Sequence to fold (442 residues):
Amino acid sequence: MANYVSADDAVKLIKSGDRVLVQAASATPQALLKAMVKRADELRDVEIVHIHTEGYAAYADPQYAKSFRTNCFFIGGNMRKYVQMGSAQYNPVFLSDIPHLFRNGVLPLDVVFLNVSPPDKHGFCSLGVSVDIMVGGLESPNIIIIAQINPRMPRTYGDGIIHISRFHACVHVDEPIFELAIGDPTPQETSIGKYIAEMIDDGSTLQMGIGGIPNSVLSCLTNHRDLGVHTEMFSEGILPLIEKGVVNGSKKTVLKHMIVSGFAMGTKKLYDFMDDNPTVLMMDISFVNDTAIIRRNPRVIAINSAIEVDLTGQICADSIGTKMYSGVGGQMDFMRGAALSSGGKAICALTSATDKGISKIVPMLKEGAGVVTTRAHAQYVVTEFGVADLKGKNLAQRAKALIDVAQPSAREALERAAHLRFGASFYVFNGLVSPTEQIGVV
Fold:
């Protein structure tokens, strides 16, 4: 029988010095986190670990520094200020590797917070919209599992099924699942979406996240055929393509016909679609993001973003200089998996400039910036000005390709930087006339 208690009583199972794994993204268990913080005076050195969460995050506030230490595997908007002020820390790791940290005892866990669907007639609950890193965590020995039983959590198929008898404490909640609605894409995002859609062949397998660019790409795919989905996360931009039969997974190799994902974020429309839907498989992220698994699907299209890209193709996606902004996540998992897939394409998509008009294609990354995707892994960089194909190109050729899709007002300065860095070879390898030749200097 399940042990139903209040949230305040449930968190009494936490001891000082424990490491607590928190289910994240749209499934962040708000009631349990708030109850835990109410015990701050009683607890010391409790480590909180998670990927990006939504909503309540006061446990990372400096006033609770003696009670709680926060260790993020990915930084969400609610944690960014705490990481940047130093009251929380970021742990750089590929998303696919996080479950192995738990399974291999590198980061042994003591407690897990869950937000799950009510049990079915057999007593099984579902992790719903956020399975991702949780399966590995739940395999930790001697783990204490505290679960919010939430009727608003969709029941999903896949790896996130757990029997209620495993819970040490259950808390009845009726808590909304966090929703994230995406507005209309900007004109720049629309242009990027059109360029990427032209790169996608029928029968491709898609990996894309959430935001204006992914949604713009999806809106341009209505005339495609037999697309599949194998992605670390997905949003409701995919729903119209499913309804039209464009996305049917018929050409996939891994879990044919199924939508495979680790977590999902969207609105109630998406969550209603996922609920009790056997064509949606929410899986352990160490499976979803395994490069060896990804590459088995045909024509994998991986679409990821960047904060800035330098002239050699180095992609920074986790920091602004020394300030951590997000994380490594699954970008490299899918960029490499797509590159190894038969007919696959690894795409970095970004607008050419920030909202303040600063070029995102730069001579060199900011001091302290992290390279998430190396120049050797970069294949395509797409802005609203076109597609830079970096495959097989040397550094001088890459620089020219990237300058051609950069913000027009930045191109002259970028070309000067390329000349300084690569010398005459920048012009020789790109079939250009050098400035000295233009003025007749021999």
Summary: The longest helix spans residues 408-422. DSSP finds 16 helices and 23 strands in the chain.
